[in-house]
Design brief:
The structure is a homodimer of 408-residue chains. The first copy, chain A, is an alpha+beta fold and 408 residues long. Chain A has 15 helices and eleven strands. Helix content of chain A is 44%, strand content 19%. The relative contact order of chain A is 0.16. Chains A and B meet through helix 2 and helix 12 of A and helix 2 and helix 12 of B.
């Protein structure tokens, strides 16, 4: 492994990890902007803007964008979360120049009024489609309730109202502000020559406007609560619960990840054996989500409506037991194996490695090799788990549910 | 790259490709058996048997199987096609011994009557579920019509009748016959020590019964035809068409693959630009499928019912044009880039490499490095495409369709 780091004079951060033995290269622009950086008036603009990147630029028509990616055989996509908008592609190294050119170009899209109007309809359809999914509604309500009054409670897609009222000029202004070079991390992973990457970055990104900086990191103070939506078209009851956990810059995040695997991995976890395997629930999982300045455990299960109450109690009993007694040596060892396997399997392709590389930098300005993560994982012991659970116990603080039930 | 090859005295073939720089290992047992090796009485037994592998053995209960795979963080699965039943897992190298033990054990399952009866219900449900999918019905009918009277026309899942009537003793007999060691290829890819692999193979596979051998490779003589199923619950009309193409051991398969990409890749192909982009069809693709002793081009499109006839004509016109005039230099160059990218990106993980490694051996007793495939690809020229199209023109020989239409 060979790691390189550089900052252009406008503030664009470039990080690159060269891997021996791989045959492709992945590159991604991680823009430090997402739903949490929006205001009520422009709710959903980050995600809408991500779509607009594929609608053309001054130099590339929308057709060009797809054609060029296609001709070089790129695997490419984009995504928007509460905190990051990401544009990425994986290709053979010989296509790096044209792919870099295109990817750098599309994140400064033309934002033409016509394209904006057409794409607005697509976004509204997407919102309508997601609104039909009980798990989407449950997640939206969970985040809104848990992070009430905090930017993390904002919706990534926005609403029919906010998107319907959004003006193209508002998007242009948001873009000017949030896509400043200092807000962007370019990550490269796989097979490449560092001087070439640097040259391409100068060529295509030197002209980007400077500016940007850290977002305010006000800690969330979740008060909890219940949000219930009765939807008889859903046969199952969907239940999501959330509680505070370590934030993205907290070293205890590794222990939180381990605990989430022990309690709620999709197979072989406590929830699996006590809810799914006996047939009490269709699915039951716990995940650990890290954000800037905040973190959350998120539990989810779906089941026959009449099993909802008993399952909430079962989950509560499992949480209590772990908070009180902790986890066993055997559980810890198994969870370490699982997590280690996932880290390694995920990182084998430049495309997978890119994600860790970029997110580590975006959240922590930190470079960590796969070996560093594996080493940290190896050192997590029962005392670390104990310390985590004392500071951040598993709880059913905030509940969001969608399904046939009229009350819980 | 380092390649190893060995045959146990019972006939089990072992092949292994060691890759520098990867951190995991993938292993798979490729059993040379599938739907084409069945008789009417046991239609679907190969796929049913694949399921039974996860129902336990003399040494592992069904719960054990899932638990052990889960504890080592394995990515594992199995699949059944017309020609191959595959069981595979990818893991960290330190878990090779227990994963090898388990994978080798489950392909000699207990085949208990109780488990058989329970799993039969699961298979019948699976058949029912697939029968609801227009594309599944269209594919089944396409293969049956195109390969009428030839073993490749057999259904992988079987039918309600064949599975309903199947006896556990018939499955045991099929297993004895088809899972003989000489019919199995063990492939290993990624990070491993060859002496360890060999020792594990001796330990776990030496006791397997010898026997097995090549299946009869009678060439198919497709006569073509039309099979139409009217299904008003489907809003779209689904159309599949098939014509002969080079077989798995024919060097022209590379040219056939290139032609299928130029004509019918899911983006940027002739079908894409003439059917999908203008909105005449929802989806339109051509694939090249290789089998032992036979091969096929398969075209598929779905569209509004009233566009069916015009689309069949559009596809016919594209085929005629390519058969007559061939493809352009630019098309050939672009298709080469696409295929090269896919080969490389797919092969970067041991899991992806395993598939090429095993299928090359199963079809051709041949080892090819990624570089060999890339080199062959580079040499394909317009004359090769011409020769292919003269021997195997694109045709609409056999047609299968499912949708609202009552006639074509």
């Amino acid at each position: 492994m060979e790691f390189h780091e550089e900052r252009l004079s406008n503030g664009l951060q470039i990080i690159a990890e060269k891997s021996p033995g791989v045959h492709s290269v992945a590159l991604g622009f991680f823009v430090r902007t997402g739903a949490r950086d929006e205001s009520d008036e422009v709710s959903g603009v980050s995600h809408f803007l991500e779509h607009m990147a594929f609608k053309g630029t001054a130099r590339h028509s929308a057709d060009d964008v797809n054609r060029v990616f296609d001709e070089v055989g790129a695997k490419y996509n984009a995504s928007t979360s509460e905190e990051v908008t990401l544009f990425y592609a994986a290709i053979l190294p010989e296509y790096l120049p044209e792919t870099f050119d295109l990817l750098a170009d599309i994140i400064r899209p033309a934002l033409r009024q016509d394209d904006f109007d057409v794409e607005k309809k697509v976004i509204l359809e997407e919102i309508g489609m997601y609104d039909d999914q009980p798990t989407y509604t449950a997640y939206e309500n969970l985040m809104q309730t848990h992070f009430a009054g905090h930017p993390l409670g904002r919706s990534v897609l926005g609403t029919n109202e906010s998107i319907g009222a959004l003006q193209c000029e508002q998007m242009r202004s948001y873009h000017r502000q949030r896509y400043a070079a200092g807000n962007i991390v370019l990550a490269v992973a796989g097979k490449f020559d560092w001087p070439d990457v640097l040259k391409l970055a100068h060529q295509h990104c030197d002209s980007w406007p400077a500016g940007g900086g850290a977002r305010p990191r006000v800690a969330a103070r979740p008060q909890g609560g219940l949000k219930l939506v009765t939807r008889t078209s859903s046969l199952q009851q969907h239940v999501m619960q959330m509680a505070p956990a370590p934030s993205a810059d907290d070293a205890r995040r590794y222990a939180a990840d381990i605990v989430s695997v022990i309690v709620g991995d999709d197979t072989g976890s406590r929830l699996f054996w006590e809810l799914v395997d006996p047939g009490h629930a269709e699915t039951a999982e716990v995940a650990y989500n890290e954000f800037d300045g905040s973190g959350a455990y998120m539990a989810y299960f779906s089941c026959a409506p009449d099993q909802t109450r008993p399952n909430i109690e079962r989950v509560g009993a499992i949480f209590d037991d772990i908070n009180r007694i902790g986890v066993t040596d055997v559980e810890l060892a198994q969870a370490r194996s699982k997590v280690a396997s996932r880290i390694v399997l995920r990182s084998e392709r430049p495309m997978g490695r890119l994600s860790s590389l970029g997110h580590n930098w975006v959240h922590r300005n930190e470079y960590r090799r796969v070996e560093d993560d594996l080493e940290t994982l190896r050192t997590i012991n029962l005392a670390d788990i104990r310390e985590l659970l004392d500071a951040y116990p598993l709880r059913q603080l905030t509940t969001s549910t969608v399904g046939p039930l009229e009350s819980l």
